[in-house]
Amino acid sequence: MVQLGKIQKPDVSEFTGKRKLYCIANIYSFEDAPDEFNKLIEQYWYEVIQHIEKIEIAGKIEKIFCETIYQHGDEALSVLSKINIHLSRIIEKKMKEGAALLPLESREILGPYTDWGNCLSVVFTNEVFNKVLEFYKEYSEKRLRHMFDTIEENLSEAEAGLLIMKDEERAKFEFPKDIEVFLITPPSYDDIMTWLRTTHAAT
Asked: Which strand (E) or helix (H) includes residue 57?
């Protein structure tokens, strides 16, 4: 696994013929977010673009896998633009360069997974919470298994793919040895995590 915290070009010879997966943490703003946080988000995605341009020397992105997306083509981009405009612009650019955006999610799994997750935030008794948690974990496992299988089945020999999803969920994957995983972590990623921790501690 290769972790890129600074902009650098990888040694192409090390990855010739291998499947490659460039992993980016999916970070976006929230309603009524302060300007300080929004500026950090903008800086993060700006740095992500720079890292992608450097890392693609190891292989041009041909497949794009993005969490929360089960739609195809323009419909998928429309959904993304409402969730994360910075990410949707990057994906649209890569699609124009020839990359294919593949649905990473299953609609039949994502719906119940989201609903059970929402239920966890509104229950008050331990008995009900534990029961709901069982269903949530069941669909969480189904979701991650579907995601893994989608990547494994669609990333062909010597191809490079772009994976956008939450770090804590991506870290649960154990990819086969023939997939070289690159973790793209721009300097602003740490700034965002620090901001979130500090803000959470103050509330």
From this structure: none
Q: Which has the closest alpha carbon to 164: 75, 73, 61, 74?
A: 61
- Can you give the length of the chain in residues? 203
What predicted TM-score, i.e. pTM, was given to this entire model?
A: 0.90
Residue 46's contacts (CB-CB under 8 Å, 6 or more residues apart) are: none
Dihedral sign, Cα of residue 73, residue 53, residue 186, residue 34:
negative
Coil, helix or strand at residue 183: strand
pLDDT in tens, 107-162: 999 999 999 999 999 999 999 999 999 999 999 999 999 999 999 999 999 999 99
Matching residue, tokens 């994957």: 173
- The SS3 call for residue 75 is helix
Domain segments of the chain: what residues?
A: 2-7+17-202
| Distance between CA atoms of residues 57 and 152, nearest Å | 22
State how far the Cα of 47 lies from the Cα of 50, in Å rounded to an integer. Answer: 5
Give the Cα separation of 15 and 6 in Å (integer).
19
In angstroms, rounded to a whole number, what is the distance separating the alpha carbons of residues 117 and 129?
A: 11
Q: Which two tokens stand for residue 161?
A: 């793919």
**Whole-angstrom distance, CA of residue 64 vs CA of residue 96:** 12
